[in-house]
Design goal:
The protein is of the alpha+beta class and 781 residues long. It is 51% helix and 19% strand. The strands form 3 sheets. Strands 1, 2, 3, 4, 5, 6, 7, 8, 9, 10, 11 and 12 form a 12-stranded mixed β-sheet that branches.
């Protein structure tokens, strides 16, 4: 009963602090509910899509001539394979054109089969059934919609080895294996009549290893097979050679990783940010409690003299903040639940399926319980100073000095009285502002981090350093072109502008030590961006990414076995390079090395990166004059970005900025309110000496501006040192092991200025209480 009495009194006396903690926990719990629920919804919805489609553990695109009776028998005899499903398909490798966009994505077409779900016209939910297709109609995977910027009713043209075929888009479907926007292969669905026509024409045409007909072979693990999907694929390949004889393959685990890669990474960064904000709440709470104990020194002594034990007082303080945290958390969860579907929908066009809402209330409550537990322990540690309060000393007014804690005396200037006096007050009580400095530093660090993410997606140099292939002039040849002809094209370009990088390579999947890896057969290997070692200049050399090196336990100088269909060769790892192909799981060899594996590095498209991008128009004009009837010449739009992916980064940037500024408001309100309470007597003295309310408010705000500047400098310094390393670690899942951003003056100053200005404005707003302090306050004291 005594504890409840103290609890009610504490809440009544400190309503502002109580409400502030409620708001802070409201933000944290709402964000946790959204992040964890969206993550769970994405995972559960993708699992449901794979379950509905009955996806195999390994999916391989096998050339028709390679899927022989002997191959089928090997699969039948493989002990770790329960069964397999082979779906006839026609390979479309020359790209697909839509009214608004042309794409080089590789597609394989088959007739519709069980397990494919049709989206409604608004792409917001699934239809109950999927109508059959007529000749000339096509169902396209949802991820293709973003790639081609196409809509239902648009006409698309598929380029094949046997000619071009036109189709009308009848709808978009969820195909969970290849359906996301960032997987290069796409599985599209046409009528059986169209499939028979294209297959017959492809078989009759002169085909090569990439453009033909074949099968989508799905392999299913036996019940007693305990291998992971990756190890299962490797073992099956070693036993049957099916992967080595395929155009490419994908495990279900890899597909799920690629499909949710952007949602996982975006939500992961947001989760870290929110958990850091939870630590900020603990810091602010600790500061509030510590200051409150100092201000209530006499009252606490009186309570002790009346028989209230230190334990009861500490429990009442802990309960005050615990109740505030619980109330804020409950409100946050309730408000977040309706927003889960909205946030999840942001990732649907990227991931290629419709996310169904699955609130992760259990996980959210677990996180919140951890925060509550940490908060209780932290508060009990802070309130330990209650045990040291002596009732006699407190009642007699013999408490320790709480106003100044430093011997540093900053000079005071009559010319800049408000500013210098604010600096003096800061240096005299700097311990009081340590928490605010740390908080400002944390907020600036995360704002700087999200700036770096946003800037890197629109910076050509940054994307190049991270392994993306950035071109200014793009060339799409009418037919496959060898290096000799490309050299002539480059000669024309060099007459108009200096070339920075040549991007003409042929991409295939090869087997490395039994693992299928994307391989770039480069006509100009000397232009490869190598981090360690050197480019693959000889026909027995290969460069690998850091992720391949880690996955296969390789280092520079090691020998590796490479296979393509029935050809096997040994290569020496000459370097570690940077690439975003296949989310960083890629290798590269030169054209001569490709020939040893039976791969001709002829290309249908490529591009150049110019030293001076402004010369691009001159280069295009020169190329069109010479090659206008042999190739299509286009320029990369300098304002073009990563579309939907960049929108997700922008959304994350807005959320972090909004949360940071709102946190700044609450934190400044709590800290400045305590500071104001501590300094009522000082304010009365200043007013008695002729200081106006306006000058005192300005002085108060300047003090918090100084605090924020120190925090901003600390956050900026830490950010410039660590952000590239931190993001390289966080974004490793999408292949970025070398995150790069060049910090600009604007990029650095914007978050720092935002926090500093907010601290100043919020402190100025809170300081309006100074109006209520008069000289009578001094007389009373």
């Amino acid at each position: 009963m005594e504890i409840l009495t103290l609890l009610k009194a504490n809440i009544r006396r400190r309503k502002g602090t109580f409400v502030s903690v409620v708001i802070l926990m409201f933000i944290i719990s709402m964000a946790l509910t959204l992040i964890l629920s969206v993550s769970k919804s994405c995972e559960a919805s993708l699992n449901a899509a794979h379950s509905y489609a009955k996806s195999g553990n390994v999916i391989a695109m096998v050339k028709g001539t390679a899927f022989t009776d002997e191959m089928r028998k090997k699969l039948d005899d493989e002990a770790i394979i329960d069964h397999y499903r082979a779906t006839p398909m026609a390979v479309i490798s020359y790209g697909v054109d839509a009214p608004k966009e042309k794409s080089d994505i590789s597609c394989f077409f088959s007739s519709i089969h069980d397990g494919i779900r049709l989206l409604n016209k608004n792409c917001t939910d699934y239809e109950d059934s999927i109508p059959p297709l007529s000749k000339g109609e096509i169902y396209m995977s949802y991820g293709t919609k973003g790639n081609l910027k196409c809509e239902i009713g648009d006409k698309i043209t598929a380029h094949t080895v046997s000619g071009d075929y036109d189709f009308i888009i009848k709808g978009f479907v969820t195909e969970p294996v290849f359906g996301c926007m960032n997987i290069g292969w796409k599985w599209q669905f046409i009528s059986q009549e169209d499939l028979d026509i294209i297959s017959a024409a492809n078989n009759a045409a002169k085909t090569d290893e990439k453009c033909s007909t074949g099968y989508v072979v799905e392999l299913y693990k036996s019940d007693d097979c305990k291998l992971s999907d990756g190890k299962f694929r490797r073992q099956v390949n070693l036993d049957t050679d099916i992967i080595a004889n395929s155009w490419g393959s994908l495990t279900k685990d890899m597909s799920m990783h690629y499909t949710n890669i952007y949602s996982d990474n975006t939500l992961g960064i947001m989760l870290i940010f929110i958990l850091i904000l939870a630590i900020v709440v603990l810091i602010v709470t600790g500061h509030s409690i510590s200051t409150g104990i100092e201000l209530d020194y006499t009252n606490l002594g009186i309570l002790k003299s009346q028989g209230f034990s230190s334990t009861k007082i500490r429990i009442s303080i802990s309960l005050q903040y615990f109740i505030a945290e619980v109330i804020g958390s409950i409100i946050g969860i309730v408000c977040a639940i309706p927003l889960i579907r909205v946030l999840a929908g942001v990732f649907d066009p990227i991931s290629g399926y419709i996310t169904e809402t699955h609130p992760a209330l259990g996980t959210v409550i677990l996180y919140l319980l951890c925060i509550f537990a940490a908060s209780v322990v932290f508060i009990l540690l802070i309130t330990h100073k209650v045990c040291r309060i002596s009732p006699i000393r407190a009642i007699s007014g013999g408490r320790n000095e709480v106003y100044f804690d430093s011997r540093i005396k900053a000079p005071i200037s009559s010319r800049f009285l408000s500013s210098t006096l604010a600096l003096r007050q800061f240096t005299f009580a700097r311990k009081r502002y340590v928490a605010s400095i740390i908080i400002a530093a944390i907020l600036v660090f995360f704002m700087l981090m999200v700036n770096a993410l946003s800037d890197s997606t629109s910076s050509k140099k940054a994307m190049e350093m991270m392994g993306a292939e950035i071109t200014d002039v793009n060339i799409k040849f009418n037919e496959k072109t060898d290096k000799a002809e490309i050299d002539k094209v480059l000669d024309i370009i060099e007459k108009k502008s200096e070339i920075n990088k040549r991007c003409f390579h042929y991409g295939v999947n090869i087997s490395l030590n039994g693992e299928e890896i994307f391989c770039s057969v480069n006509n100009y290997p000397e232009d490869t961006l190598v981090k360690k070692g050197r480019a693959p200049l000889y026909d027995n050399e290969i460069v690998i990414t850091e992720m391949v090196a880690d996955e296969l336990d390789l280092k520079i100088g090691d020998t590796i076995d490479a296979a393509r269909f029935d050809k096997h060769e040994q290569f020496i790892v000459s370097g570690i390079y940077v690439s975003l192909y296949d989310t960083g799981m890629a290798v590269s060899i030169n054209a001569d090395a490709g020939k040893k594996l039976g791969i001709e590095a002829k290309v249908t498209n490529g591009g150049v990166n110019l030293k001076n991008s402004e010369d691009a128009e001159k280069v295009r004009a020169a190329l069109e004059k010479e090659y206008g009837n042999k190739a299509e010449i286009t320029l990369t739009d300098p304002d073009d970005d990563l579309g939907l992916i960049n929108n997700a980064v922008r959304a994350m940037r807005i959320i972090i900025y909004a949360f940071s500024l709102f946190f700044a408001l609450i934190v400044v309100s709590m800290v400045s309110s305590k500071a104001f309470t501590q300094e009522k007597t000082d304010i009365g003295i200043f007013k008695s000496q002729g200081f106006t309310t306006g000058k005192l408010r300005l002085q108060f705000a300047i003090r918090f501006f100084i605090v924020s500047v120190i925090g901003a400098i600390l956050g900026t310094f830490t950010g410039t040192l660590l952000i590239n390393k931190v993001l390289s670690l966080l974004l490793r899942g999408i292949g970025i092991t070398n995150f790069y951003t060049s910090f600009t003056i604007t990029g650095i100053l914007m978050p720092a200025a935002a926090i500093c200005i907010c601290f100043f404005i919020f402190a100025l707003i809170v300081s309006r209480k100074i109006k209520k302090v008069g000289i009578r306050q001094l007389i009373t004291e």
